[in-house]
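FAQ
Q: What does a multi-component entry look like?
A: The components come first, one per line:
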Amino acid sequence: DQQVKQNSPSLSVQEGRISILNCDYTNSMFDYFLWYKKYPAEGPTFLISISSIKDKNEDGRFTVFLNKSAKHLSLHIVPSQPGDSAVYFCAALLSGSARQLTFGSGTQLTVLP
Amino acid sequence: NAGVMQNPRHLVRRRGQEARLRCSPVKGHSHVYWYRQLPEEGLKFMVYLQKENIIDESGMPKERFSAEFPKEGPSILRIQQVVRGDSAAYFCASSPPNRGTEAFFGQGTRLTVV
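Then the predicted structure of the entire assembly, as tokens:
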């Protein structure tokens, strides 16, 4: 029973264009969402996050959008660069004292030069 | 300013042996989390520990797996009598008190059971 879903296992984008990675969740008790980037043989590194009280958070080339009614969030990367090629994981935190992250299965982004 | 340190990076064990995975959190972080990533899957939560306490082990298999975070020294994830299905990447993360959203991950230990 996957509570956080990333339905696209892979995405290819041309350098300089926009990359859009999508994530859906089912548990309405999630109130904080994060995106992590992971290179092979390394641990996930935090990229950007958003609280459920917001619908958008921007940090440089990265913007996360949250649509609570649709239980959907997306990560936009613009312009995409070859160094952005990695696996991107969406993760969610439950409200309250629980601290463990619930991860999606990841999307492999390939940015073509 | 060292991040989360995990060792070993790679561990090969024969079926039936014990595996010990170590995690040293970021200095000053008192919360440690262990996650497991099976091939082609996302990370799955296993256990959440504070110093000398297991806070949540709801993701841990009931048998053969145990975790500790002693007052001194690293956190240890122990897998007894390993089986082929235990082969995975095991990641440790740490966070400061009361700021669980700021979890930093180590590079992981890749366990292979032969």
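Q: Is there any commentary attached?
A: Sometimes. For this entry: The two ends of chain B are 36 Å apart (CA to CA).
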